[in-house]
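Quick entry between incubations.
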Amino acid sequence: MSPRKPSSEVLTKEEIVNAARHQFIAKGFEKVTMRGVASQLGCSHGALYYHFKNKIELFYAVVEKDFEHLNQLLKEIINSTKENHQKLLDILICFMKFGLNHQKQYEFMFMMKNAEVDSLAHEAATKSYYQFEYAILQLKNQNTEPSLIYSAFVALHGFVSHHCGYVKEYNEVKEYAEAHALFIIKGLA
Amino acid sequence: MSPRKPSSEVLTKEEIVNAARHQFIAKGFEKVTMRGVASQLGCSHGALYYHFKNKIELFYAVVEKDFEHLNQLLKEIINSTKENHQKLLDILICFMKFGLNHQKQYEFMFMMKNAEVDSLAHEAATKSYYQFEYAILQLKNQNTEPSLIYSAFVALHGFVSHHCGYVKEYNEVKEYAEAHALFIIKGLA
DNA sequence: TCCTCTATTGACCATTGGTTAATAAAAAGT
DNA sequence: ACTTTTTATTAACCAATGGTCAATAGAGGA
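Done. Structure below.
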């Protein structure tokens, strides 16, 4: 009723993003409503617009963290002490594992074609790709054809995106994924 | 004003689908409104619900034809008189060409993750995949590993879906596509 | 105590997908 | 030719949505 809450319950951006993340993952972009998020937080939907310009900006705040997560995973592999060929395999597997164990997030990051959202996510996706390219170049011959690396990346992406939504988790297609990794390495040679 | 039009202008399903197709391709699923389609047809939006249960059913009527189109293209290659290895290459190229010259349609067919729409499109997509698998089996060794064919298909899909929306037409990435086709054939060996 | 800034409310708007009673035109029956 | 039935359409209606904004209660400083 009162137009402002006591200081102990003021909204923080982080609380909003967390609530929104849960709902986006559970229901997908379209079916999440600002009112629904607000109600989970116990505030009016208008309040959200004080912290985020619109639904898309709130959504992107969620997605941004997922890119950080993936980039972190890849970085760890690159900095590990394993042998190069194994690292390469690990990277391919890691990407697929991430995609299929965080499917909704992967969709948001690499598969959403919504024009408004996309302009934001595309930049981050491109960054992820460069990291991938850089890793491959380091792990394989330095003068690997760029087009081969590109083919490897899109083949990887194809695997994840094709299974997204039709399996529950990575383990269900573990064998296929490993075969696909070998398929890609064969193509890279 | 009158509750029924003279017989010369009664709506047909086909007219509706054509108008809808244009709008879906131009604006994407979410941004097309039943009112918008109705207004292009010069009728009230309620009239559309007489012919189609809801927006999704109207949408699927559009997509169905696109699957027929792609299947037809693939069939023509298979029935051609070329040599097997060339046919295989043709199929791979044809798929990418279709995807990138009819990007919105490809999105609708293979990339849309909308839960409601998807249940319908998924069946048709699976059918397309079986046709692909059958063709590869015929063109390559009959006992090609199924997992290899699967990898080939998802690699192909990955190429299209990765470029979808970021290039205007197939010709812009023709060289990459041809390299990718060779990459896939290498993996299939 | 007064003032300013901050965060929140709730009423409001236009637009959307979808439903439905009313009904005019067409078709079928006689 | 008249009546009845069926068909296709309208327009008014509903609940929900994303988004805007004036009003205002609380917090913190002077």
